[in-house]
Design goal:
about 260 residues; single chain; mainly alpha; globular
Length: about 260
């Protein structure tokens, strides 16, 4: 494809906004994927190219959360491994079947996330302790990782939001610790999906790297902001993000 330099600059600016939102609340893919489609990429190539930027975005924010000791790899390795396996399966699947049914169901799923977050505001866990290890916890980690990893591999947008809210619900984590778990899991699923798309020949590296330049800066700023200001800063952005995702996908899928 022959593209004007303005397209690359626009994608870099789009990445800055998307990286910030993705690091804070998830859902940056709802900005980057339409931008890639507008640049003329076919759907599967847009999804694969988006994984270049998504991998860099999630790596930047995951590293920041890890350095702040908000993620313990030895405790969460099962969830991360499950996310990798799920992402591989999801990416292979999306290249074989149509995602029309998923696009129509997605707005309802995201709306449920928004409703859950609003209704459970006063009941949000506030402790900083990890849940008790055991078979029950391990089953939840495998279930969360496989399901959301597969969704991320197959489509992607909103995965960060789903990981955050599922971490709060499954493990009774506060929203900051849930974000600390969500970012590494999201990076792993993004990276495995990217490798799979590369093997399938569905990645435009030039556009992906242009998008990534802005995302690196946006992810760093967003992760630092979330850590500094805590749940009070994350929550309103998180709620607005899931509502925006729901409305945008509903409009695209139904109208």
């Amino acid at each position: 494809m022959t593209l004007d330099i303005s397209v690359f600059l626009l994608l870099a600016a789009t990445g800055l906004v998307a990286g910030f939102l993705d690091a804070v609340a998830g859902g940056g893919g709802l900005i980057t994927i339409p931008a890639l489609l507008s640049a003329g990429l076919p759907p599967h190539l847009a999804l694969g190219t988006n994984k270049v930027a998504a991998s860099i975005s999630s790596l930047t924010s995951a590293t920041t959360f890890y350095r702040q000791r908000l993620f313990t790899p030895a405790f969460w390795w099962r969830a991360c491994l499950a996310a990798a396996l799920g992402a591989l399966a999801g990416t292979l699947l999306i290249n074989q079947i149509s995602a029309v049914w998923l696009e129509k169901a997605l707005p309802l799923l995201i709306l449920m996330v928004a409703v859950y977050t609003v209704l459970n505001r006063k009941r949000e866990p506030q402790g900083t302790q990890l849940p008790k290890a055991g078979p029950r916890l391990y089953r939840r980690q495998w279930g969360q990782g496989l399901l959301l990893g597969a969704y991320d591999g197959a489509f992607g947008p909103g995965t960060g939001a789903f990981l955050i809210v599922s971490g709060m619900a499954l493990y009774r984590l506060n929203i900051l610790l849930a974000s600390g778990l969500a970012k590494p899991m999201n990076f792993i699923s993004n990276f495995v999906s990217l490798l799979t798309f590369v093997a399938l020949g569905q990645v435009d590296w030039l556009l992906g790297l242009a998008l990534s330049l802005g995302i690196m800066a946006g992810s760093f700023i967003g992760a630092r902001s979330a850590i500094r200001f805590g749940g009070g800063f994350i929550r309103p952005i998180f709620v607005l993000m899931v509502l925006a995702i729901s409305a945008k996908l509903a409009w695209q899928a139904w109208f």
